[in-house]
Amino acid sequence: MQAVLKDSGLKVTTQRCKLLKFLTQVDKQHLTVENIYKGLNAQGEAMGLNTVYRIMTHFEQAGLVIRRLFESESAVYELSGKPRHDHLICLTCGKLIEFSDPLIDLRLWLAAERHGVVIDHHSLNIYGHCFDCKKKLESKSGQ
């Protein structure tokens, strides 16, 4: 953790190391600051909410994490350096699925080329209802 922080130009502190370690070990990769705060404290790593906000801002500025905003949600963070991907988001339960599709990437590249644009990066978020929520919505409307 110390080498990652140093390579990112950040001062190495115990709290930053603990937070970065938590982010690399947690299964869920789209976390709000509140999720991170609760997760750290559940592991016995006492850290204030304001401290987590401040460190996450530093991590974002250093390029260690990416901050994403999705409809009707607080900002979520994911570790940077992951392969490029897009997101499917359920409007009912908030389920978030990462996916990659070479055909979508090709279509975006072709559209950009046709309009004289070189793509630096893009963000594709698709909103709908997961199958479970869709079934629940249909059963409620059928009653």
TrEMBL record:
Pfam families assigned to the protein according to its UniProt record, in alphabetical order? FUR
What's in the keyword line of the UniProt record? Cytoplasm, DNA-binding, Iron, Metal-binding, Repressor, Transcription, Transcription regulation, Zinc
Q: Does the keyword DNA-binding apply?
A: yes
Entries under InterPro entries matching the protein: FUR (IPR002481), Fur_C (IPR043135), WH-like_DNA-bd_sf (IPR036388), WH_DNA-bd_sf (IPR036390)
Which cellular compartments is it found in? Answer: Cytoplasm
Where does it mainly reside? cytoplasm
Tell me which PANTHER family the record gives.
FERRIC UPTAKE REGULATION PROTEIN (PTHR33202:SF2), ZINC UPTAKE REGULATION PROTEIN (PTHR33202)
Assembly notes:
Homodimer.
Sequence similarity = Belongs to the Fur family.
Q: What name does UniProt use for this protein?
A: Ferric uptake regulation protein
Q: Which gene encodes it?
A: fur
